[in-house]
Design a protein that fits this description.
This protein is about 80% helix and about 0% strand. It starts with 5 loop residues before the first helix and ends with a helix. The protein has one domain (about 25-165): Orthogonal Bundle (Tetracycline Repressor, domain 2). It is built from 8 helices and no strands. By secondary structure, it is mainly α.
């Protein structure tokens, strides 16, 4: 997309360039909207699932089904583009911070005996594992099916919360 024209984007989206430019004056506007929309979808889904179970909420970040694999592919694509585009890099950082802060609040609410700063650091560690699992599952789905992704995530949460509880 860094080198894609609005015409090419419109064609891929199945609409005219006029329709696309009516809603988005530039590619930056489109990327900002898409990033904001995607982050809102993800954080809402995580919040709903985490009400009953922390691990289930965090698992919503993993590419466990086709819709989440598509989200993850988009995230990875923006990540790769951000290496050569400062604007995209900023959007990526903004999105990742939003998810990290949201996850920190969820961890804090789920583990009320854990001090706030530790809960947020725990969220950073969990998000690092989620990022790694996501990349592994997208590039090697046979070795990282959904059940394995969930298992690794749940074991990580147990291990990390045990470390926090013991300190």
């Amino acid at each position: 997309m860094p080198h894609a024209s609005m015409r090419a984007i419109a064609r891929e989206a199945g609409c005219t360039t006029g329709v696309l430019t009516h809603h988005f004056a530039s590619k930056k506007d489109l990327v900002e909207y898409a990033s904001t929309w995607l982050i809102a979808q993800i954080t809402n889904r995580v919040s709903r699932a985490a009400q009953d179970d922390l691990a289930a909420g965090i698992a919503e970040l993993l590419p466990l089904d086709e819709a989440r694999r598509d989200e993850a592919r988009l995230w990875i694509t923006v990540f790769s583009w951000s290496a050569t585009d400062d604007y995209l890099a900023g959007e990526l950082v903004k999105g990742h911070r939003t998810i990290r802060r949201h996850l920190g609040k969820i961890v804090e609410e789920s583990l009320p005996t854990v001090p706030s700063d530790q809960a947020h650091f725990l969220a950073v560690q969990i998000l690092a594992v989620v990022d790694g699992l996501t990349l592994a599952a997208l590039t090697n789905p046979e070795d990282y099916p959904p059940a394995k992704q969930r298992g690794v995530l749940e074991a990580t949460i147990v291990a990390l919360t045990a470390l926090v509880d013991s300190s």
